[in-house]
What we know:
- By secondary structure, this protein is of the alpha/beta class.
- 44% of the residues lie in helices and 18% in strands.
- Helix 5 (115-121) links the parallel strand 4 (102-107) and strand 5.
Amino acid sequence: MCCTLxxxxxxxxxxxxxxxxxxxxxKRVLIADDSDSVRYxxxxxxxxxxxxxxxxxxxxxxxxxxxxxxxxxDLVLLDFKMPMMNGAEVASILKNTMPHVVVILFTMYxxxxxxxxxxxxxxxxxxSKPDGIAQIVGSMKTLLAVSHKSCPPEGAA
Length: 157
């Protein structure tokens, strides 16, 4: 038995607007910082950015690794100095287990992290907390755009 469904043009247009099928899927970001106030400030700032969404937060290095593996974010924003495991250790683990994830170290100590350490642990950028949250969002957009163009989707050959 065959059944034909008919929908009015108004119904179809309403569904399209409701679903907003042309809207790009936001990139998912995990914020890892032991400071509640820093995580709150970053999360609040990112809420206003349509193409980025916070998929989770971590309170220490070990939590960051566990949540990154579980949540599979597109980008992980890591504080350098965290309990349990520092940001450099977390970045190294993430780059070995999730090579396509973008990693940004966000720290008070950016001037002390040399390019050789950056390269050795595989972070994509090191940003200074004193430079502000606006710089983070700009860097996230840039790195995610570059990462999206250079990395094939999972399962693609």
